[in-house]
Amino acid sequence: MGQQALNGVFVGSIYALFAVGYTLVFGVLDILNLAHAAVFTLAAFIALALVDAHLPLWLALPLAVAAAGLIGIVLERLAFRPLRGRADSNISGLISSLAMATVFEAIALQIFGPDISRFPQGTFPDRMIRIGGASASLLQLCIVGTSVVLMAVLTLLLARTRLGRQIRAVAESPRAARILGVNVDRAIAMAFFLSSALGGAAGVLFGLAFNSISPDVGRSVELKGLAVIILGGMGSVPGAVVAGFALGLIEVFTVAHLGSSFRDAVSFAVLFLVLIARPRGLFGRAAAREA
Amino acid sequence: MTDLFLAYESLFAFVGINGLLALSVYATLCCGQLSLANAGFMAIGAYTGALITLRAPGVPFIAALAASALAPALIAVPLGLPVLRLRGVFLAIATVGFGEVVRLFFVNWDYTNGALGLVAIPQRTHLWTIALALALALYVLGRLRGSRTGYALEAIREDETAARTMGIYTTGHKLAMLVLGAALAGLAGGLEAHHTFMVAPGGFAFGRVVDMLVQAVVGGTAAFYGPVVGAAFLTVLPEVLREAGARLGLAPGPFRLFLNGAILLAVILYLPNGLVSLPARFRRRARGMA
Amino acid sequence: MSLSLAGVSRAFGGVRAVDDATFTVADAEVHGLIGPNGAGKTTLLNLISGLLQPTSGRIELDGRRIDRLPPHRVAALGVARTYQNIRLFAGLSAADNVVVGEHLRRHAPFWPRLLLLPSAQREERAAREAAEALLSRVGLRERAGTPAFSLSYGEQRRVEIARALASQPTLVLLDEPTAGMNPNEAAAVARLVREVAREGRTVLLIEHNVRLVMEVCDRITVLNFGKVIARGAPAQIAQDPAVIAAYLGDGS
Predict the structure, then answer these.
(1) What is the CA radius of gyration of chain B?
(2) Cα-flanking dihedrals φ and ψ of residue A179, to 5°?
(3) Would an 8 Å CB–CB cutoff place B257 in contact with chain A?
(4) B21: domain range?
(5) ipTM score of the complex?
(6) Closest chain B C-alpha to A270 CA, distance in angstroms
(7) Mind telling me how many Å the CA of A276 is from chain B's nearest CA?
(8) C152 lies in a domain?
(9) Residue numbers of chain A with a pLDDT score lower than 50
(10) B181, B27 in Cβ contact below 8 A?
(11) Over 90: is that where the pLDDT of C239 sits?
(12) Cβ pair A91:B261 closer than 8 A
């Protein structure tokens, strides 16, 4: 049981990291960024390409994450900024992010091909560590550690820094923020940078963890990510963290007791339950139902 | 001429099926609801039709098709009641979830061979069957526009709260359109199953409903025939450009994807009312210059 | 159609937007609802039309309890309304907006329309003509085909009134129908309101234009901080010290 809990925390940390970026953009723009998973995928490929080019992992990782952040800024500029102020910006934002996701996926497919790629042997030292009665690989522990650190950094950034306050102000009300002198465009761009950097980090860690990178690797995570942000509450970063770990644990325990064919089904079961019983999730503020 | 026709028969068939699918998404879009459940409804229709044909061969095709349309329509009701209360993006997410659950159900169901699906389905669909179904769907949706119900749907799309205070039972209308969309998607699924000889869960993943949405939006939802225009455009264009792509050294898969994405982005940014709004744009531009 | 509110309250979190409101509106009366900004007048309208549920109290229409009914059922009982912030269907034309308003009055099953039967075509023509007649009544016949978003502010308010009248309501709730109008337009609306009452319809009118309210209304209820502070005929209200005190800070 301890082993399963460990596995759950491991998988959950990646879900949480991915979901945090997802929910951040929703909180700021009230739009679901469906290109998030594509950035996740691209970051994994970029890391892979850098490692294949003989860069050490401790360098390739941050570079891939930074690249992901930059992609996020491009994404915002191309697909979201022109739509701001449009009456139907929720649906059109969804569709334009879908368009960008398709473009990113096409690029990944063209450059890296449809087959599964793997990190070369020896990218990460292969060592097992025992904790209590359970064992985890060094890689797994590093992944959990990295996820937690990144999420903590984001939380501190949002709570303590000027940029964080500006982002939160824009999330409350862009108009009020502008009146108070916040550079709304820049705040939104930075929110995208952070969101995509974290999503990219999740992608790199996922790639390392499962060592199986292909252009459609983002798809299943994307749908799980939806379950996580719904459970946690749309727009709530702490909600995404809690829900991410929760979903990871729920998944692992479901597989252990009901078999692996239920693994994906359980996230959707959670999704439906939450939407029907308490649509705003654990910590969400947004009104999810019509008047 | 007939040679050309035969060579492109398959293309026309897909234009027709995609047209039906795009219309199925339009059914809910026209009252302001973004429902992404239709890949799931299509799967239910496809499997229903295929199972009837394979297990009860004596049943006439039209009955199998009717069942393809009816099965998802019935399922749409218990799905819609709790889910249509949700606003905007939450409804979209819930319906995406539904679609995935349906796909996973078929992946795990041994009776239908799980992930391998059903094969060797006799080809009972002809081009005229698809054309007839599409014409029927267009006619019904066309007659809806401008009717009392059609006015109510537009009101719901523009301002649901105000519509309610005018006596419009918005939940009922939204549910009716969800059911109609489910029936159209199911019908398209049944037609496709009997055209491509097989049904497998892989054909009903999230990407499928995305295609439907893209085609409806690119064509334009201001006119009831817009989605069909979009379906035709986006089904035919990659074929037409396949030569060009190969010459540029691009693999056909990525090229088609890239095109889809680029066109969709261009449309949503610069032509938000879709291709059907082009003539009006040109007319305004011409008047401006005259 | 008579309307009665008994002890109606509505709280949002800790704030009481409407606090123990009790008053009645008689059949075919023009009843004014006035009070400083934020007094709870629009909230009251939302409670009556079913968009909100009271946290306590009863609302009755001709003795029939309506406060637990959803908005479309309240409308079906003969209640129509306009909105403080104007809620026209922006993408639809003025005439189409009014046709939507006719929803409850129309008998238009789908089959005849599907089969292109002449009865369906006749019904649709009648609906369009009725809409144009209503637009004439508010002086906007020539703007019938104009999209609602390109109408002027005053024109939009008038279309909203026409739309509200389209269902042939027995109770009309008007939320600041003359806001932003010039004196001529406002006077025309005042005349229309009296006409509507003569037709036997009851009107509940929220207005900031106190002079108009005094001229047009049979009786007035005054709200402040969600509470009813005065009720009665215009002459009484004008001299009520509580009312004067409430408005002193408003500059009216």
Answers:
(1) 19
(2) -60, -35
(3) yes
(4) 10-289
(5) 0.91
(6) 10
(7) 6
(8) yes
(9) 290-291
(10) yes
(11) no
(12) no
